[in-house]
Amino acid sequence: MILRINGVSIPAPTKFAPLKADLDSENTLRADDGYMRRDRIRQGVGSFTAEWMLAPAEYAALSNLLNPAKISVEVFDVSTNSTKTMEMYAGQRDSECVSYPSKSRPQDSLWKLTVPFTQY
């Protein structure tokens, strides 16, 4: 789970899907004999997708934290059972209005925000 962005506590996401991946060089390929020739240049690059259900004020505050090109993200890492801080960037932000109870009170609406994060 995400705990803080740039040192600021944020609402707990309703969904959190971590992923660790390797980065291979351009020399990685499957050769003519069918065997993989792998040149791994970095192991365990962290990424995850998080989803929140937010009121407009919470949405605006979280969006502002995601604006910088590089952000510091503190997360709980289940693979190590500890918290860790990673330098990351926030990818495309997908939004959906899931509740709009009154046209005269848009501040009472509820928004789903989904954001992918990738480690530098």
Defining key terms:
two-stranded antiparallel ribbon; 8-stranded antiparallel sheet; elongated; 1 helix; 120 residues; mainly beta
Brief synopsis:
With 120 residues, the chain is mainly beta.
Provide structural commentary.
This protein is mainly β and 120 residues long. It has one domain. Helix content is 9%, strand content 56%. It contains one helix and ten strands. Strands 1, 2, 3, 6, 7, 8, 9 and 10 form an eight-stranded antiparallel beta sheet that branches.
Q: How many discrete domains?
A: 1
How many distinct beta strands?
Answer: 10
- Write down the secondary-structure element order: EEEEEEHEEEE
Cα-to-Cα separation, first versus last residue: 19 Å
Largest sheet: 8 strands, antiparallel
SSE-based structural type? mainly beta
Mean pLDDT, all residues: 94
Question: What is the helix content?
Answer: under 10%
In one word, what is the shape? elongated
Strand content: over 45%
Rg, Å, rounded: 18 Å
